[in-house]
């Protein structure tokens, strides 16, 4: 979810206090800072995009992480404003909870149980940038002197909107099951919001031999961008790639991926593609692992669509690490 949406929802959380909306009110400082600070992990991307799959929506998006963030925020506000540090902590925690809840509701997900688990929990309901959700909270700024009921209305509309998105996704799942005759024991269906278009839903159908991908427009019922990917048998090389350091890193990043392997100039290549995000021609996130003739991992690269390839550190046999260049 975008920072503007997080900020506006943070304002909405603070408005539940009933106090006048102002940046000089420590309650609003607590809720807005709480709603924004989980994304501090984005600064790791200034060094490289590889850090996106390593750190984003990890520690600062976990239940334990937001408690730490709320404690830091409340300490800062106590030094600046005085008052009750516990009150600041609870409001900051409420703002941070709003952040991880919104991030959970899109398809990227968030590692709520870090460091005990790196599994990304994802609700697959909201788009990355959702102008409707943001719009619900804008009226609070116009009624800043009496913001309580506008905030209640905003959260009520937000809840209704999320329920409608859930209903829409359920209907899309039913349409796809009917069209393709899917059976629960044979095919696996995943439906998630497309990158663009409120009525567009990306889907993947994982069968025994292939994975079908496409986009369904809910309002028109039209299916576009259909493509099929052959499922690869997990050869010893592919298994080695999946259990390597780069392979584990990529699988930690996404639960929906496709594997492509080939041989070229006495080198063996294994490419992992994140199936969640795509445009009409390619997938947004990919990783390529390069093996020698003895199936020893030599190099690994992370690809982000239209951006430079970045090396992924590869663990050597001696336990050290090196980066492909």
Query: Stretches where pLDDT falls below 50 for ≥5 residues?
Result: 316-325
For the sheet with most strands, the description reads: 5 strands, antiparallel
Could you tell me the strand content as a percent range? 15-25%
Shape: globular
Rg result? 22 Å
Estimate the mean pLDDT confidence: 88
* Distance between the ends: 34 Å
Structural class: alpha+beta
**Overall number of strands:** 11
Give the total of domains.
3
The helix/strand order is HHHHHHHHEEEEHHEEEEEEE
This entry's quaternary arrangement is single chain
Strand order of the largest sheet: 5-6-7-8-9
Helical content class: 25-40%
Question: How many H/I helices?
Answer: 10
Task: Give the gist of this structure.
The chain is 40% helix and 21% strand. It is of the alpha+beta class and 325 residues long. It folds into 3 domains: 3-164, no CATH class; 182-230; 236-323.
Description of the molecule:
The protein is an alpha+beta fold and 325 residues long. It folds into 3 domains: 162 residues, no CATH class; 49 residues; 88 residues. Helix content is 40%, strand content 21%. Strand 1 and strand 2 form a beta hairpin. The longest helix is centred in the middle third of the chain and has 33 residues. The radius of gyration is 22 Å and the shape is globular. 35% of the residues are buried.
């Amino acid at each position: 979810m975008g920072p503007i949406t997080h900020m506006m929802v943070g304002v909405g959380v603070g408005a539940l206090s009933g106090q006048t909306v102002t940046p000089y009110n420590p309650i609003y400082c607590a809720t807005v800072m709480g709603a924004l600070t989980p994304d501090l992990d984005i600064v790791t991307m200034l060094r490289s995009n590889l850090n996106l799959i390593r750190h984003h929506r990890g520690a600062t998006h976990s239940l334990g992480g937001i408690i730490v963030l709320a404690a830091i925020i409340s300490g800062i506000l106590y030094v600046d404003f005085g008052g009750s540090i516990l009150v600041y902590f609870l409001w900051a925690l409420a703002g941070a909870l709003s952040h991880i809840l919104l991030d959970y509701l899109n398809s990227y997900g968030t590692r709520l149980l870090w460091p005990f688990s790196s599994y990304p929990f994802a609700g697959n309901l909201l788009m990355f940038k959702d102008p409707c959700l943001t719009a619900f909270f804008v009226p609070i700024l116009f009624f800043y002197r009496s913001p309580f009921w506008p905030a209640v209305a905003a959260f009520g509309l937000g809840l209704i909107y999320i329920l409608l998105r859930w209903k829409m996704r359920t209907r899309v799942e039913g349409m796809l099951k009917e069209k393709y005759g899917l059976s629960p024991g044979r095919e696996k269906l995943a439906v998630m919001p497309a990158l663009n278009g409120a009525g567009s839903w990306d889907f993947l159908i994982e069968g025994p031999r292939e994975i079908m991908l496409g986009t369904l427009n809910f309002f028109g019922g039209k299916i576009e961008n259909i493509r099929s990917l052959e499922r690869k048998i997990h050869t010893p090389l592919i298994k080695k790639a999946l259990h390597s350091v780069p392979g584990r890193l990529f699988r930690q990043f996404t639960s929906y991926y496709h594997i492509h392997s080939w041989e070229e100039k006495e080198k063996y290549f294994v490419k992992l593609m994140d199936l969640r995000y795509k445009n009409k021609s390619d997938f947004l996130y990919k990783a390529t692992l390069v093996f020698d003739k003895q199936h020893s991992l030599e190099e690994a690269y992370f690809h982000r669509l239209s951006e430079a390839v970045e090396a992924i550190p590869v663990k050597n046999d001696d336990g050290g690490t090196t980066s492909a260049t």
